[in-house]
C-alpha cells in the first residue's frame, strides 16, 4: 500500500509542476506559424513516465489538463485540452513504454524518438479534424487548406516540440530520477 500511495503522491507532484510550467511564457519556436507555441509542461510527464512507468506519465498529462480546466475554464480549452492530452499521452506513453521494455540509455533515446514520431503522426488526423475550429478560435482567416496547414505547420511544429521536450527531459532525468524512485 505504501508504494502505491507514494506513486500517487509523485504523480500529483509532477502534475502540479507540469501545471505550473504552463504559466511560464510560451515560446514561438516555429517562425512560419508563431501562433503555435512551445511550453515546458510535458517534461515532468516524460520524466514521470521514465521513472514511474508509462501509465504514471500519461496520468501526469491527464491531471495537468484537468487542473487547467479547474483553474480557468475557457471554451477554447474544450478543443485544446483533448488535443494536448492526445499529444502528450502519445509521446509520453510510447517513449516510456519503449524505455521500460529494457531500461538502458539506448532504449531511452529510441523511446524518445519513437514517442516524438508517434505524437506527430497521431496529431495529423486530430489537427485536420479541428482545423476550421482552431482557425476560428485563433481569429485567423486561413489562406490555405487544412491539409496544407497540417503538413506545412502542424507536423513540423510537433516534431520540433517533441524534439525539445525529449532533449530537456533527457538532460534532466538523471538529475531527478533518484528522488522519484
How would you characterize this protein structure?
The protein has 181 residues and is mostly helical. Helices cover 78% and strands 2% of the residues. A two-stranded antiparallel sheet has the order 1-2. Strand 1 and strand 2 form a beta hairpin. The two termini are 16 Å apart. The mean pLDDT is 91.
Brief account:
The chain has 181 residues and is mostly helical. The protein has helices spanning 2-21, 43-52, 54-71, 77-101, 105-137, 146-180, and strands spanning 27-28, 37-38. It has 6 helices and 2 strands; from the N terminus they run H-E-E-H-H-H-H-H.
- Output the radius of gyration: 16 Å
SSE series: HEEHHHHH
**Count of individual helical segments:** 6
What's the helical proportion of residues? over 70%
Low-confidence stretches: none
**Total number of beta strands:** 2
Shape: globular
What does the largest sheet look like?
Answer: 2 strands, antiparallel
Strand content: under 5%
Give the distance, in angstroms, between the N- and C-terminal Cα atoms.
16 Å
Oligomer: single chain
Strand order of the largest sheet: 1-2
**Helix/strand-derived class?**
mainly alpha
How much is the average pLDDT?
91
Which key features would you list for this structure?
6 helices; 181 residues; mainly alpha
Topology:
Blueprint: H1 2-21, E1 27-28, E2 37-38, H2 43-52, H3 54-71, H4 77-101, H5 105-137, H6 146-180
Antiparallel strand pairs: 1-2
Amino acid at each position: 500500500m505504501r508504494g502505491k500511495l507514494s506513486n500517487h503522491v509523485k504523480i500529483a507532484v509532477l502534475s502540479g509542476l507540469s501545471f505550473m510550467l504552463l504559466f511560464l511564457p510560451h515560446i514561438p519556436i516555429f517562425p512560419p506559424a508563431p501562433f503555435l507555441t512551445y511550453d515546458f509542461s510535458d517534461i515532468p510527464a516524460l520524466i514521470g513516465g521514465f521513472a514511474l512507468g508509462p501509465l504514471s506519465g500519461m496520468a501526469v498529462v491527464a491531471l495537468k489538463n484537468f487542473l487547467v480546466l479547474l483553474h480557468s475554464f475557457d471554451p477554447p480549452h474544450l478543443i485544446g485540452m483533448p488535443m494536448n492530452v492526445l499529444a502528450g499521452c502519445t509521446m509520453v506513453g510510447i517513449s516510456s513504454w519503449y524505455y521500460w521494455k529494457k531500461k538502458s540509455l539506448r532504449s531511452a533515446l529510441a523511446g524518445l524518438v519513437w514517442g516524438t514520431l508517434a505524437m506527430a503522426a497521431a496529431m495529423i488526423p486530430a489537427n485536420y479534424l479541428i482545423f476550421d475550429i482552431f482557425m476560428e478560435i485563433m481569429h485567423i482567416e486561413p489562406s490555405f487548406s487544412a491539409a496544407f496547414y497540417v503538413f506545412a505547420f502542424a507536423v513540423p511544429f510537433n516534431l520540433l516540440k517533441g524534439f525539445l521536450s525529449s532533449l530537456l527531459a533527457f538532460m534532466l532525468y538523471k538529475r531527478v530520477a533518484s528522488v522519484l524512485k
